[in-house]
Amino acid sequence: MPDISERDDDLLFSGIAKIYRPAPCGMMTVRANLASLNLMAAMRDMFDLAIPKPRCIVFRERSTLCWMSPDELLILCRREEVATRMNQLDGFLITESSLVIDVSDARIIYDVEGHGAREVLAKLCPVDLALGSFHIGDFRRTRLAQVPVAFWLKDADTFSLMVFRSVAGYVLEVLKMAARDGSNVGLASHGNASRHPVDEHGM
Fold first, then answer.
1. What pLDDT is recorded for position 107?
2. How is residue 126 annotated by DSSP?
3. For residue 21, which phi and psi values (nearest 5 degrees)?
4. Per-residue confidence (pLDDT) for residue 142, from 0 to 100
């Protein structure tokens, strides 16, 4: 999955997986009828993307759509595009009951990268992360230890995690603990690494 923004040079932690903090990106929450023809047209015309299926993401080079709930999308894009994109969306949805809001400052993203990335998250989240069960383009809203988290697999060895800014420090410390050298549990050696299609035709 292409990065939406350039990654910071700083590596936060290195163990059985590496933990990075990517540069901030823009985030917009859209509450609307996901079956709306106007919303579908907006996503197609603005991002060349279809509405993702439940618990999935779709993406192009600079934009990502995340399925958050039956009536909610999260759009990730370059931060400088947010104001323009919000105005465009308001135009598409002007005749519908909808809400478009900038949430760029409410959440942050960590990347967990490397052969042990699955093991790190499997220790902390009640999600089946075996190679044959969680694929590129899959998306989950769940809990990491004691706090809410959403995450997706953006390439074969990298998970992106989205958390509320207020608990970001806690999440980083928990991730570092789970990624300590020598803490492997063998999850990465099981399952099937088949790729799950992620563009709008395969979702």
1. 97
2. S
3. -115, 105
4. 97
How far is the C-alpha of 72 from the C-alpha of 74, rounded, in Å? Answer: 7
CB within 8 A of 108, min separation 6: which ones? 21, 24, 162, 163, 165, 168
pLDDT of residue 184: 86
Strands 64-69 and 72-77: antiparallel
Distance CA 130, CA 170 (A): 25
> Within the chain, which residues score under 50 in pLDDT?
1-9, 190-203
Size (the chain), residues: 203
Q: Coil, strand or helix: which one is 187?
A: helix
Task: Give the CA diameter of the chain.
Answer: 57
What does the block give as tokens for 101? 């809001």
Contact 157, 114 (CB under 8 A): yes
Question: Nearest to residue 138, comparing CAs of 159, 124, 122, 121?
Answer: 159
How many Cβ atoms are within 10 Å of 127's Cβ, its own excluded? 17
Pairing of strands 57-59, 7-14: unpaired
Cα 31-37-43 angle, rounded to 5 deg: 65
In the block, tokens 């759009």 appear at 75
pLDDT at 185: 81
Task: Note the pLDDT of residue 172.
Answer: 97
CB 122 within 8 A of CB 187: yes
